[in-house]
Amino acid sequence: MLRDMGLQSDELLLGVYQGVSLIERSVTSPPLFPDTIILFQEPLEEACETKEKLEKQIEITVVHEVAHFVGISEERLEELGYG
């Protein structure tokens, strides 16, 4: 999956949104599959030292991926502090 996304094998991937964002959808050509947000348990756990930090990181990751669903770019997310 990292390779398919153009990421290096040592990059940390905590979550991913798979689907067609709301701003890219078309009434005449709806998505073939339902939108999905995947969270990666092991990288999340490795990135966090405590349960509290893990809970916060999960929250940040979900917000980040939902933002992609509504059409917010990676660059804009970084500007907002969710990069």
List the helices and strands and how they pair.
Blueprint: E1 15-18, E2 36-39, H1 41-47, H2 51-69, H3 74-79
Antiparallel strand pairs: 1-2
- Mean pLDDT, rounded to whole units? 91
- Could you say which structural class the secondary elements and strand pairing correspond to? alpha+beta
Radius of gyration: 14 Å
Major β-sheet, in short? 2 strands, antiparallel
Approximately how much beta-strand content do the residues carry?
A: 5-15%
Terminal Cα separation, in Å? Answer: 19 Å
Count of helical segments?
A: 3
Helical percentage = 25-40%
Q: Which stretches are poorly predicted, pLDDT < 50 over at least 5 residues?
A: none
Description:
The chain has 83 residues and is an alpha+beta fold. It is built from three helices and two strands. The chain has a two-stranded antiparallel sheet with strand order 1-2. The chain is globular. It starts with 14 loop residues before the first strand and ends with a helix.
Can you tag this structure with a few keywords?
single chain, 83 residues, alpha+beta, two-stranded antiparallel sheet, 3 helices, 10% strand
Summarize the structure.
By secondary structure, the chain is of the alpha+beta class.
